[in-house]
Structure formats: structure tokens, C-alpha cells
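Lecture 7 notes: from sequence to structure.

We start with a single chain of 210 residues. Read the sequence below before looking at the structure.
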Amino acid sequence: MIVNIRFKENRFRSLFFVFFCLFPNLFAFGQQQTFVYHSGEIEVSGFTNNYNWKMKTDSVECKALITLQNRQLKAINNLNFTVPVQKLSSPNTYMDRIAHRTLKSYPFDKIYFNYVKSEVQPWKDKDQYLVKASGNLTIAGVTQAIKMDLIATVINDGTIAFSGTHQLKLSTYQVVPKKTLMGTLNTSDDVTVTFVIGVKPLMLSSATGY
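Now the structure, written as C-alpha cells:
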């Protein structure tokens, strides 16, 4: 019996050694986890010849695949988010309607960002990282490749917050800014997108009801 137990232990150790040799990435690079949207806000802003305008939304769909090791961010394997155009709003509902039409909310009712690749570097704080991301941004049905710097912050409760700013021209997406108020109000082609998006591990998110 003792010999049999020792044989099983030795066999288990051999299998573990082979597994370790064949799949070293699981041990060296940590575990890839699925994260989903938890909280945040996206702001789109620009200016006219009379005033600056700003629209915001917290209606975001986001899913990410992230590799962590000992609470340290090792890699962003995937990061996609979607924003419904008509959820972008401001105190001025009249201007909102114009903006939604300008962005061709029908039939293109959503703005998409689809991740392609990224580089992760340590940032100022020990829990912060600079993520140099590349991806495809789709607005009004037109897709353009973009590069964007994000700051990722790993928070104690398991949440990871991504923040960043991206500047674009509407004409790049074949969007023509509308003239309003009898043609006296002209909207600039330049737009700034600023965002803070918090994501939480899928299992933890399901358990807490988010």
C-alpha cells in the first residue's frame, strides 16, 4: 500500500512537471480574466463660433480580457466598448437632437471601439500603468484605425479604471457638422472624447449584482 501511494505521488509530480514545462505562461504571466463594465462616464466636447458644448453618458457596454499577476497589470488582451449615440446628452435638448442627427444615429445608433493591440508600462503610482493602445473606432458607420494612451489604475476592490482623452475630426468619419439658428451657429470639426471606464471581474460582478 505504501509503495502504491508513493508511486501515485511520484506520478503526480511527474505530470505536474510536464504540465509546467508545456504551459509555462500560466505560471509566468498570471491569469487572464474577463472584466465587464462597472461604472464610468464618457464625455464628448467641442465648440461653436459662440460657445463650447459638451455631451456626456454613463451608458457604456464594455468587455475586457486582462492578465493580472499579484494584482499587477501584465497585459491587456482585449478591450472593446460601445456607446449608444442617443444616450449622449447635455442640458440643451435642442442641441442634443442636432448632434444625434449629425452623428447619424439612424441607422448608426452606436459608437464602437474595437481593440487591436497595446503595450503596458508602469506609470507614476505603483498601481497605475500607461497603456499605449491601438484599435478601430467606428462613428456613423465609418471605421478608422486610431492610437490612444490610457491610464489604467488597479483598485483594491478588484476594479480596474481606464482613463484617457482622444481628439478627432468629424470629417474623418464623413460627419459634417450642422449649421443651426438660420446658419449663424457653426460647429467646429474638432471633437475631444474624454472617458473614465471602470471594469470589474465578471465573476465578482455577477456575485455583487452589477
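The CA atoms of residues 102 and 178 lie 6 Å apart. Keep this in mind for problem set 3.
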